[in-house]
Amino acid sequence: MIPKGADARREAAEDYALRKVPEHWKRPSLSFAMSLSGLTSSVFFLALGGQLALLFGFPSAMAAFGVATVLGWLGSAVIARVTAMTGLDLDLITRGSGFGFLGSAVTSLIYGMNWLMYAAIEAAYLGTALHAQWPVLPSWAWFLVCAFISVPICWYGFTQNDFVQRWLSPIFVIGLFWLLIAGIQHGTAEHSFSTPGFSMIGFAGALGALLPNVVIQVLGTGDFSRFIRKSEVKRAMVVGPFVVIAAVYLISFPIGATLALYTGSDNPGDYINGLLGMFGIIWVVATQLRINNMNYYSASLSLANFAARILHWVPGRRFWVLITGVVAFIGAVLHVEEHLVSVVSFMGIFCLAWLGVLIADICVIRPKRRSALHVEHRRGYLASWGFPALISLLVGAVLGATLSLGGIPTSESGALLGDVVALGVGFLGPILVEWLTGSRMRRLVRQPDPKWIDDHSRTDEEMEHDENMLPCGNCGERVMRQDLVTCPVTDSHVLCSVCCGAHRTCGERCKTESFVPSDDEIRRHLAVVAVTNGADSKGSEKPA
Hints:
With 544 residues, the chain is mostly helical. Helix content is 67%, strand content 2%. It is built from 20 helices and 4 strands. Strands 1-2 form a two-stranded antiparallel ribbon. Strand 1 and strand 2 (478-480) form a beta hairpin. The longest helix has 33 residues, at 278-310. The chain is globular and about 80 Å long.
């Protein structure tokens, strides 16, 4: 049954930040592509493309763009398939990918910090451009406006994001190519396109700076591909990477590099207004609203997941949208964009190690354990900590950051070596532990009934059929069995995964007691709870 009225508005607000996406909330691949297109419109890409061209030479930068496209396409296709088939975002998938229920909160915090950083960078770019055009307001006031203008846009999640991207995308496309043509016509390429020529050192330096951004793009795919219908998964594995990877690395980055050579600046704020005039302001506003809506959305998902696991607190996704606005304002005031490459590289190293662990689990460990069809995300079945995955992540990130930021062995090649080490340790660590222990490291503390796990041979419609739906004994929302947990503590004997994760006083008895109630028993207890709640509500309406 599709919710209507207030229930539909609440559903749009929360956007399944903490649970599986049901069939009626899935979208066609075109809607997915339009939503992802916002990730292509960042002025940050023009800045980074220009910076790499000026630092390492145009040929080396272009070669790095090509390699990054291939690597990003492969990673994005894998993530898109898993999230679309399971209906889970990356935070939820990470729980069952070896990190454990509490251990995965580490990656949620890292992931959220990345999106908070990007939100601050984009707000700073937009605020700076507006302040240059209308200096009557101080810069901090423009930063405040730019940080919080994205809050109402992100208020209704995927649905509103799809609308925003569709209507603002023509402005972005027209402005991007107008900017390129105007830059070539009015500028002079003081820096040669062929000098310095291609070199392995330059290529390594450019690719090392790109890979942290590649992994953020790949991981960002997962927050939106979970809305794809199972019948369109293969199409999504092509459309998603094309939009979020190829359009960025084969269009936006090269245009940024070309503009840097013609204008002599890697900061788009230095030349956009001069080349496009008043339309430049309109273009910057449109593009930054598109990209920052994506940043705010992914940040809100990550922060909501982190708080639900560590604090057992679920204030709602909208609360975290507001928090993202506050942090973006603070970052813009502190001019985080002035430390672009170092900040992106540092945060990206952790995400590279995380992606390595995820790919190892999806492509190697799960097929070995014959558990590729189900990714567990429910607290009541998961171990709290997954030390092989966590240690691989932290060791890979620390080693990678040391090499990259320390410029070891050289400042040009250290970044690439650090990226490779972070990704490699993240990938090989869990596989090595799996091999040494003979797959004896427990991920689940108890096995769910076969009817309560994913069955990908069933369609989305079958998964949301009445026979597979039960009301949560706490919040009353009807959800799929695959998002419910049998619970010995509550009167209903069943909770949805969100209420289970937020429970503070249960002592996790379900993990130590043998508790496998039958369907009839669960429905009987649910009926008793429903009658009790009904009687209580009637009694509360009587005058004192």
